[in-house]
Amino acid sequence: MSAFTESISRQALLEKANQLIKEHDDYFAGMEATDVIQQRDVLVFRGPLFLDNDELPTAKTTAVFNVFKYLAITFSSQYHLE
């Protein structure tokens, strides 16, 4: 990992991420990050995607994707997983 990022536990990062999610303009009830993995230098957040009955994306899916992308950009430059 980069020498310029701080090591952080998965749980601590999820707590920070979920706080940031609640402050985001696109937040809606039920949006949350439930897992995070490290793929090279990028932190990838996971959580409910809010698909419709046919398992197709909805407007909420797009909002979740955009917020998770925001989390990846924000936190990948600051942290790496322990």
Automatic annotation (TrEMBL):
Gene3D superfamilies documented for this protein: Protein of unknown function (DUF2498)
Pfam families xrefs: DUF2498
Top-level taxon of origin: Bacteria
Protein name: DUF2498 domain-containing protein
Organism this protein belongs to: Pantoea phytobeneficialis
Classification lineage: Bacteria, Pseudomonadati, Pseudomonadota, Gammaproteobacteria, Enterobacterales
